């Protein structure tokens, strides 16, 4: 377990891709960010989360994944089944993403015919536009739809930090070429614009995997750098 910043804890980095399972918290309320793939020898992340919440007397208000790739979302159905009182939030693009849906369809914990139909839904709140806003213990928490690494990317904004999923920061390139360069540039511009409008001072940037933790960052400069191939 690692306390990364005020209100930001990494429970553990799971599985062979070492993706983090994050807990964000404020005034008794928490959000889980990333529901990673894990190995057979690891205690399931939802169990670790449950004991963490119990010890700290936290209510799990939100469940969020930064994008629909297997290392970030594989255990989502298990979290969904174990935390029925939690609001799972995502952007519309996630429910239209065939890659994400095929990962969910292969999960042995998932009741058949899920996919946000019938009685079992993967998500409670699905936003359509660029921005979703909630609150954790009175503090705003935002999701910004901004496709760069994938067409399901959402940046998370809370208490001066941003979780950037698998964005390759400081460069237009990413570890794949799923998103067209012009869409990446547009997503970066829109994200910067939204952060300005929210008057949120972002000074920390954390990768979803928890391996890149940037403190005292010039957010604007980092975003401008991310619009160019270096
Ligand atoms: Zn990843």
Describe the protein in words.
The chain has 230 residues and is an alpha/beta fold. The chain has one domain: Ribonuclease Z/Hydroxyacylglutathione hydrolase-like (Metallo-beta-lactamase, Chain A). The protein has seven helices and 13 strands. The chain has helices at residues 45-56, 70-73, 76-82, 92-95, 98-105, 181-198, 219-225; strands spanning 2-5, 8-14, 19-26, 29-33, 59-64, 87-91, 125-127, 131-136, 139-145, 154-158, 161-163, 204-206, 213-214. Strands 1-2-3-4-5-6-7 form a seven-stranded mixed β-sheet. A six-stranded mixed β-sheet has the order 8-9-10-11-12-13, with helices on one face. A hairpin with a 2-residue loop joins β8 and β9. The N and C termini lie far apart (35 Å). The relative contact order is 0.15. The model has no long low-confidence stretch (mean pLDDT 94). Bound molecules: zinc ion (ZN). Zinc ion binds at residues 17, 19, 69, 71-72, 166, 209.
Order of helices and strands: EEEEHEHHEHHEEEEEHEEH
Distance between the termini: 35 Å
What's the CATH architecture name?
4-Layer Sandwich
Beta-strand share of residues: 25-35%
How is the biggest beta sheet arranged? 7 strands, mixed
| Poorly predicted segments | none
Strand order of the largest sheet: 1-2-3-4-5-6-7
Q: Got a strand count? A: 13
Top-tier CATH class: Alpha Beta
Q: Give the fraction of residues assigned to helices.
A: 25-40%
Global mean pLDDT: 94
Q: Which superfamily, in CATH terms, is the homologous superfamily?
A: Ribonuclease Z/Hydroxyacylglutathione hydrolase-like
What small molecules does the structure contain?
zinc ion
CATH fold assignment: Metallo-beta-lactamase, Chain A
- State the secondary-structure class: alpha/beta
> How many individual helices?
7
Rg value: 16 Å
